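Recap for those who missed Tuesday's class. We walked through two folding examples back to back. For each one, the amino acid string is listed first and its predicted structure tokens come directly after. Nothing is annotated here on purpose, so try labeling regions yourself before you check the end of the notes.
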Amino acid sequence: MAISKDHLLWMYETMYKIRCYEDKMAEAYAEGKSPVFNIGAGPVPGEMHLATGQEPAAAGMCVHLKKEDTVTAPHRPHHHAIAKGVDLNRMTAEIFGKATGLGKGKGGHMHLFDPDVKFSCGGIVGAGIPHALGAALAAKKRGTDWVAVAFIGEGAANQGAFHESLNMAALWKLPFIVVIENNQYGISVPKTASTAVPSNDVRAAAYGIKGYYVKDNDPIDMYNVSKEAVERARTGQGPSIIEIETYRYLGHFQGDPEVYRDKNEVTLLRQKDPIIRLRNYLLNECGVTEETIAQLENKATFEVDQAYAFARESDYPKPEEALEDVFV
């Protein structure tokens, strides 16, 4: 399948930006939380789930999406938000609990919403699947070619919402795609201990729809598979399931002691970093120069630094604003 060079450059810049963002968030989140880990301390209190290592899933899919397409994300949402084009300044301010945030600081890290680019994050396992299904139904009833994509972890594929939504999507032939990021663990439980099938793409057969599997976190394969799934959805051929074998380099949450996995596991995974692999592909197969790569990296780094500066300089909401835009 022919691959657009511009698309690959966009993917590299996006994946690099995601990695920079998550690295910087890990630093910001750690502030004030040691020597004894205190989840409520520092400028970013609460639980924090980072997607370092899972960049291909978001970039390989979102490169094919339009502003009008809907994306829903789970509790590990930053890579999806960045790839979908969520305002980085306002997203970062939201995570810091600032008044300039997407939800004026009321939602935080696990409840990011940006209607301007049709992105939402439910924060609860599997919660985004029915929302994306509704968006797909609306797109079809309106006669548009819009697509709805629900990103989930492999654990959510065992939720009732997954099966119920796919049954309806298949029945009504909706422009609906579920992307399952199999990062090997549901919190601390390995997939092999929670799921009867070796990969969730095979479950597509139960609904008579298309299933795809992307091995080893490969950004090129993710690009190709996503392109086909999106084209099928846009042309009325119905829903698809994509499972990508991906890896989180960090714990389930920041501060996770990770006693459930061998410490050498992450070291080995980092040796096949998808960002480095895509970089080498661009240099060796696409004729991209080191100078172009550096320009993309510098641009991404600048945008991330700018977003964090915006968030830190923004004000917290005033007490009298606590109930504004809150419906009870």
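Example two. Treat it independently of the first, because the proteins are unrelated.
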Amino acid sequence: MIIETNHAPKAIGPYSQAVVAGDYVYVSGCCPFSTEDGSVVGTTIEEQAMQVMENLKAIVAAADLTMSDVVKTTCFISDLENFATFNTIYADYFSGGTFPARSCVEVARLPKDVLIEVEAVIYKK
């Protein structure tokens, strides 16, 4: 089953916002794009990280789940100098200090030259 919501940006290529496979939901990489026109929201890591996490949260909600159901994220960041700032914003989206497993890697370039992209795996309990 495909998950699609108007509360997160439309896919900019041949992929879905998220796909349900059994008890799991696989969320495509979320970038800091506007839900209205697909433009990049913000120029700083703070602005872009908040938009990425809001987009991710909207897709999670569209699957009738919450951020506490996220079991794994992969974070792609264009500059690891921004890691601590991103970490602070990221942590705010998970309640009770229970965080998913995570990988975070620096990459050379992201779509539309954004600073951050986050993908997720969610477990439907």
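Answers for example two:
The first strand starts at residue 2 and ends at 3.
The chain has one domain: 2-123.
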